[in-house]
Amino acid sequence: MRVGGEKLWRYNAEDCCRTFENHEVLQSIVDKLGLRAPHDFQQSLFHPTLYAMLRGVRVDEAKRKEILDQLQAAEVDAYNWLKEVIGHELNIRSPKQVANFFYREVGQAAYHNRTSGGETTDDEALEKIATREPLLRPVVDKIAELRSIGVFTGTFLRPLADNDGRLRCSFNPAGTVTFRYSSSENAFGGGTNLENWSGGKQKKANRKPPPNVRRIIIPDPGYTFFDIDLSSADLRIVVWESDCRKMKEWFREGKDPYTETAKEYYNDPSITKKDPRRELFKRFGHATNYLGKARNIAPKVGLSIPAAERTQRWYFDKFPEIERWQEKVVATLYSTGTLRNVFGYRRKFLDRIDNTMLGEAAAWIPQSTIAVLINHAWVNLWLNLPPPTVEVLLQNHDSLAGQFLSSVPGLQERILENCQVTLPYEDPLVIPVGLKTSELSWGDC
Length: 445
What we know:
The protein is α+β, with helices and mostly antiparallel strands. 52% of the residues lie in helices and 11% in strands. A hairpin with a 5-residue loop joins strand 11 (422-423) and strand 12 (429-430).
């Protein structure tokens, strides 16, 4: 049906007027709620975010095919290994087949989905089985490897680039309750999620490291790729929120609190950052900081529940400020249902308060603070080192990646300066920023 010109103009004019009327009302509400600063800052992200979405990243098609071929060969080897070990083929994409193997063939007690009540063989359930029955650990690890291969081939390695050889996504600044961005295919159905791309680091013992798919993303001619990350950001936020004096002292001395804590707990001053006991204490401390219960933490760090309870009590006796901060978070949640971070961002919790929500609430404060912090760094770069000099192309929750002109001297120092954002605590905090670069690819940074 054809629409006349006057009717079309009237329709569009009315649409603009009604939208503007809504805007005026909503702006008054923003002021009444005391959210002017968060609102205005979120609006300032529009242009840098749109630029990253339109610009996209350059893809090395030959490297993509190379990694894809390697993964497909690894998938065949892994399925052959499974068939030889368990005596028959097992389709790991079939929850029914996997459940039948673990819960009937080898007689493991079944784990059930909390929502549906049905049997589950998700990663958490299989990890519990492997912890309970070490003989099944190799099988669980092989299934995890195959699942990882499936994710990588389906999400990162299928042909994704547009005709110009660039990969684009759609960033959503309002995609999560923590103010972290979410990422998905672009508005034209191309591209993919450009967050959470693996750099190929080993995550768990006895498992092959995931491929470094970041090597697919390469700088444009004349540019150097960079990757920015924050040093111990989550822990620093917890330490400053709780005003934990001992950990503040360690940070100011350039020490790693988890390493120092492990030294004291194990009474071994030789422990370094690479010591597995330090990694164990990092996982334990991280979960404990976010109101994790000993019974839930124990299987994840290889401790009995009584040992986890004793360790948790030792931890809180050592750092009582963290326990008092947790009590304050819980009391605030019960009294107002609203939490606020140091930048003035708020979250209203509407669901029933239980242990899961309490842990989510404690984690929300550091997660939202870091998300806003990294976006402040992004806006600083946009305003002070605008494209084409520096191009931020990727936002990865608590880090930024992009490219800068190789021919301009001193840019690395200026990038770092613009990422030094002060968190306005009573005792101001500036989280140290690391910058890694490569002229080859993102994965080589």
